[in-house]
Amino acid sequence: MAYKILIIDDDTELLRMLKKYFEIKKYEIITAENGTEGLNKIKLKPDIILLDVNMPDIDGIEVCRMIRDKVTCPVLFLTAREEEQDVVNGLSSGGDDYILKPFSLKELDARITAHLKREVRRREKTECCFSGELAIDYKAKTVQIHAEYLELTKLEYEIIEFLAMNPGMVFDKDRIYEKVCGYDAEGDSRVITELIRRIRKKFRQYTETEYIETVWGMGYRWTK
What we know:
Number of helices: 8
Low-confidence stretches: none
Strand content: 15-25%
Shape: globular
Oligomer: single chain
Structural class: alpha/beta
């Protein structure tokens, strides 16, 4: 069965190009020309969503916030904005990755493939990880501390999962980004710094244990 890609973008020429390209790649393509139409097409249960940030009625960041609790599939932002805060806002709203316009179709295809493969691997996991008061359910993709569920974005959860599955190992920010997003995107380390800060803040609501350590000049590691 073909994977479904929902593409939400007000650039009709780009929509036509992407639809033609990915249908050749044997994907099922669903398109929407604005945020409102995109919200209506969520019911078609796409496997991944390509979401433009800058749209006139409802921008992509707001669309992502509205759907994040209703869908679990990856959300990849298509954006012409390069400001750091726009990237942070997009990922903090529940997005999983972003690609700057103009982009190559080969790079976009590679990112989509990587995200879809990672989703398949994750669905196959059935084990849990317990570390003191903390429990990670790899199948349900949840994190609990003292039986309290943490409200995490998808990317925040993926960082926790990756580090927790490799306790004691130090990873720099670029390596973490590559692993959790499935694509080597140089220059995105600032996003990881912000997301780890947010994860630590959420942990501190329930525990004083520092599960993610900073190894100065090297990166981060999960405590054993």
